[in-house]
Input
Amino acid sequence: MFQSLFIEQTESGQQQCSLTHLNEDQLPNGDVLVDVLYSTLNYKDALAITGKGRIARRYPMVPGIDLVGRVIDSESDRFQSGELVLLNGFGVGEAHWGGLSQKARLKSDWLIPLPKNMTPQQAMMVGTAGYTAMLSVLALQNQKVLPESGDILVTGANGGVGSFAIRLLSRLGYRVVASTGRMSQEAYLKSLGAADIIDRASLSESGKPLQKERWAGVVDCVGSHTLANACASTQYGGVVTACGLAQGMDFPGSVAPFILRGVRLIGIDSVMRPIADRLEAWQTLSELLEDSDYQEICEEISLDKAIETAYKLLDGEVRGRVLVNLTED
Output
C-alpha cells in the first residue's frame, strides 16, 4: 500500500479530494512503474484538488502534472530498473493518474532521463513551472531577442513560472521588469534578478490598442487584459510569449501591434511538447541554475499538507514553487 491524493466524483456531480492508500493493482496501464520521490503543486494541480477548475477529465483521478522518481519495473527498452526519470504534462494528473502519489504507472514515451547534474529534489523544485519558464526564454532567444534588445517584461512575477523566468533571464544578461500584484514582494523579486517592479494594475485593465513601446520581449503568465496590454506596449519587432491564463483565457486586444509594429505572439505549450524540446529545456536548466536558486524559489511540504496548501495557492498566499516530498509516510 502507498499514499496518494485521490479525486472522486460524488453522486451529486461534485468532486472531492482526499489522502488515501492505494495498491499497485489499482494503478492505470503503462509500461513503466515508478517509485515517485517528489512532485509539485502547480496552479493547475490546485484547481484540480479544490474542484475550482474542471481539470480532471475522468474519475477517479490522482492529481499532479509532474513528477520525478526511480524506475521500479520497465517493459520499455528506453528505461531500466533503478534509473531516475522525469515527467511533465502529457495529460498526467488530468486524463492519467499523476504525480501526487508515492507510486505511478506511466507510458515510457512520456518520460525523459533526469539530467545528470540535477538531483531529484532540484528537478521538482524546478518542475513544470521552471520548465515552462525555460521554454519561454528559449522562444525569445530563438526569435533573436537578445539582452541588448531592451527590457523584458515578466507578468505574474511572484508565481512559479514568473519567478524562474526572472532568474533565468537575469542570469542570461537580460534586464527584467517584473509585474506583480504584491508590491510588498519587491525585495524577493529583486533578489531573483528583477531590475524594476511595476504594479500589475497598470496592465490588468482595458487599454489602448497601441501604447508606448516599452518591451523587447514579454513572458506573460496571466493572459486576458494583461496579455493584450503587454502586446500593445511591446516595441517594434518584439516578441511576446504566452504561457498562462491566471487572469483569464480571453484576449481582449487588437491586431494593431502585430500589423503596425510586427510584434510576434508565441504560445508556449508545455503539456504535449516533443521530447527533443524537453531534453533541450531540461539540459539548459541544469546548466543555468545554481544551488542557491532552488532554495530561494521553493518551499517543501509533505503530501498530507497538499490539500490545504492548494487552497492557499489559489488565494495568492503562496510565493514561488511548492515541492511535495513523497518519500515521507
